[in-house]
Design a protein that fits this description.
The protein has about 290 residues and is mainly alpha-helical. It has helices at about 10-20, 25-35, 50-60, 75-90, 120-130, 140-145, 160-170, 195-210, 225-235, 240, 245-260, 265-270, 275-285, and strands spanning about 90-95, 110, 180, 185-190. The chain has a two-stranded antiparallel ribbon with strand order 1-2. The chain has a two-stranded antiparallel ribbon with strand order 3-4. It is globular and about 55 Å long.
Length: about 290
Amino acid sequence: MSGAYSRSSGLIQRRTAAVSSTPETNDEKEEKLNGGEGDEDLDSKETRLTLMEEVLLLGLKDREGYTSFWNDCISSGLRGCILIELSLRGRVELEKAGMRRRSLTNRKVICKNDQPTGDVLLDEALRHIKETQPPETVQSWIEYLSGETWNPLKLRYQLRNVRERLAKNLVEKGVCTTEKQNFLLFDMTTHPLTDNVVKQRLIKRVQDSVLSRWTNDAHRMDRRMLSLIYLAHSSDVLENAFAPLSDDDYEVAMKRVRELLDLDFDAESMKEGTNELMWAVISAMSK
């Protein structure tokens, strides 16, 4: 195994102990039921990130503080993250498949619980889903929330400045800072990394999930990590997590990611105890 796998076990044990002494919130209980992070990987409340923040953090250049100008995938990827995050927190679900067993892409997203999550982006998306009748499919919601729809009546659903708002969340959590950079013709707000430990722990967890902790069964993987791998790939930022690996580990990691991408998502969603909306988003994002 490459040198990227050294574990500062003392840090993880101390943080785990600190978290275990804090009463669980309803969201944390719901996430455990939905396959949330195990105790070993649970960050403290100050550094625990949402799926959206994790994908953005993987895409941010450490020193420059912005995502690649050539990345045109991350926008829709972040909207997919929002839908899965709402599902993992027990706020939305897919409608029942019915007797004819409709495919994931044809089933609608239903509001299951309209209790606020405390995250502005999640609550804004949840409000749109709750108020929309008749319900819409996952693919439609990704298009609406990203503003990539031809229907002018649906433009009001667009979530604006998502990357900037997520970057501000990372600043508030002490992971990034805010700077102004001049790019000849314009000034741009950037968010360089300040806490490298958080990002390195995230990268290590992604690496471990397809190397030392690989199970060869998607349903035995943590759902949040499984979602992160798929959505980071769809957002064209997964490569950033694998770049530090040795050549041999890189080949193994990419081979296992390809195995995940080759799964029959409709078949996976029919297995017992699965999260159907998660697979619906993965299916929509992997087209």
